[in-house]
Write a structure and sequence with these properties.
Elements lengths: L1 E2 L2 E2 L10 E4 L2 H16 L14 E4 L7 H20 L8 E13 L4 E4 L5 E8 L2 H10 L11 E4 L10 E4 L5 E6 L4 E3 L7 E12 L1
């Protein structure tokens, strides 16, 4: 980039957070199998940070999840070695250490936390219109990023720097990020249920 005869560049800085979307077929499978876990009450709340009453572990996910998710792990690895850290050699195999589904209701939230493993992700399966309207109405109203947003934060605010990233998710959105990256999720007030899936990934050289 440049202004007049002066050239300049803006180096990449901070952790690599990848945003993409998954296909509807994958969304449907995650919803179906997540609802099965809910019916069986495979409770995950004691193992998770979320102030959410309905969180459940998936079972027998190795056979159906990994083949579909491998495409998105490859996207992350490609972005890392071609755009974020050119020349960095990274081609590990990966395994899913944990996979769970969240049924978030009004006034529930995720406090500031991080994850175990090497990479983590969140996939949004259902975002009711009521939450979307609430976000449009109240975004910035209380000096925050708005109801239902997820916020990643790597440190205190400092002059001339960006230390956080906020996103209001839509159905099918997928975020992949380093497991150590702290994040939190604002509550919403609408009397509906938002459904998301999260998991932790281990990398093996």
């Amino acid at each position: 980039m440049g202004i007049g005869e002066k050239l300049y560049r803006l180096p990449h800085w901070g952790p690599l957070l990848l945003e993409t979307t998954i296909e509807q077929e994958f969304v449907d499978i995650l919803l179906e199998k997540g609802n099965e876990s809910r019916k069986k009450n495979l409770d995950a709340t004691k193992s998770l940070a979320g102030m959410i009453d309905n969180e459940y572990f998936y079972e027998d996910y190795e056979s159906w999840f990994a083949p579909k998710f491998n495409t998105y792990i490859n996207l992350y690895k490609d972005a890392l070695v071609t755009k974020w850290m050119p020349g960095y050699e990274m081609n590990p195999s990966w395994t899913l250490a944990r996979l769970w589904i969240n049924y978030q209701k009004a006034y529930e939230y995720n406090p500031f936390h991080d994850h175990g493993g090497d990479l983590s992700f969140v996939i949004y399966l259902q975002v009711p219109d009521e939450i979307k309207e609430e976000f449009k109405r109240d975004q910035g109203k209380h000096n925050n990023t708005g109801p239902g947003t997820i916020i990643f934060d790597i440190g205190p605010k400092s002059p001339f720097s960006i230390s956080s990233f906020a996103k209001f998710p839509q159905e099918g959105d997928l975020l992949i990020f380093p497991a150590w990256l702290p994040h939190f999720v604002h509550a919403f007030k609408s009397d509906v249920e938002r459904i998301s899936v999260s998991g932790n990934i281990l990398l093996t050289p």
